[in-house]
Fold this sequence. Notes:
Blueprint: E1 35-36, E2 41-42, E3 47-51, H1 74-80, E4 87-94, E5 100-102, E6 107-112, E7 115-120, H2 126-130, E8 146-148, E9 154-156, E10 166-167, H3 168-174, E11 180-185, H4 195-212, E12 218-222, H5 225-234, E13 240-244, H6 259-269, E14 273-277, H7 278-283, H8 286-293, E15 297-301, H9 308-317, E16 321-324, H10 327-337, H11 361-375
Parallel strand pairs: 3-4, 3-16, 4-11, 11-12, 12-13, 13-14, 14-15, 15-16
Antiparallel strand pairs: 1-2, 4-5, 5-10, 6-7, 8-9
Amino acid sequence: xxxxxxxxxxxxxxxxxxxxxxxxxxxxxxxxxxxxxxxxxxxxxxxxxxxxxxxxxxxxxxxxxxxxxxxxxxxxxxxxxxxxxxxxxxxxxxxxxxxxxxxxxxxxxxxxxxxxxxxxxxxxxxxxxxxxxxxxxxxxxxxxxxxxxxxxxxxxxxxxxxxxxxxxxxxxxxxxxxxxxxxxxxxxxxxxxxxxxxxxxxxxxxxxxxxxxxxxxxxxxxxxxxxxxxxxxxxxxxxxxxxxxxxxxxxxxxxxxxxxxxxxxxxxxxxxxxxxxxxxxxxxxxxxxxxxxxxxxxxxxxxxxxxxxxxxxxxxxxxxxxxxxxxxxxxxxxxxxxxxxxxxxxxxxxxxxxxxxxxxxxxxxxxxxxxxxxxxx
Length: 377
């Protein structure tokens, strides 16, 4: 793969995209659950989004909830849909033969004859990718699926409810149609992708989305700045958010290193919002005002979003939604915390207007004092 920086100004004009009757780059059909603001998208309610479906897998955790369903699987997605959430988030990569598949890690780990080996997802064909893990046909035996932990240990990917690996098309076809999709465009942090590669990958994904999305709400997001800019240029139907650690980690690409840099990228590229690590927001709460003044939406992700108090604070701060692992607990907490105001509770309230959570001054003081402790977790 060529190591060449991508400049959006170098991307071919839209009329150079091959024609495909199922891939309309000029569609004006807007996703439900988002509204047009200035020339961007506004989020009308506080969103709860299931991380990789029902929650990411933490295989070494003593908390069985982190191993309940295989992450990024149809089973996990539909399990999440049983709770009052708005979207699920999942990771999309494209195989060597141009098929978008759902998988988080850059490589697949397996074992053969006692030897552990890894293969990059994007180097596999679709058939090879689907050959790992459980198989849809009982007569077939898939290759073992392993995972490397943060401490370097390699373990079996054991969960309570396992499932087959899946494609983006299958996800559209088999997941509850009322559930929105936050599609993360997944790329390796350590590779600089050339223009042609990014274009080919995004075109493969967009073809599936435009053919199978129908009226399903969609949000695109990516940590890869050039991919985010390019997918926004290639289509105007769905909002595109830039993913950032919010300054909690430093990268060679300076566009990824702060919330301020994220705002600059969004404004220059016409993106619709930011998804930040929640610690980055708590450490720099003043950035929320700047993001709102720029008329950008703001979502967050991270372990702290599994703490109800941290979610309460974010709603008070004006953040638009949270990506969570504990789907049941957080969705129920948000439902109890934020209820639509009734017409008789205000003179000029429109139907369905969302109320802010109500706290006493003492409770608010406690929540604000909690922030430094939360950040240290």
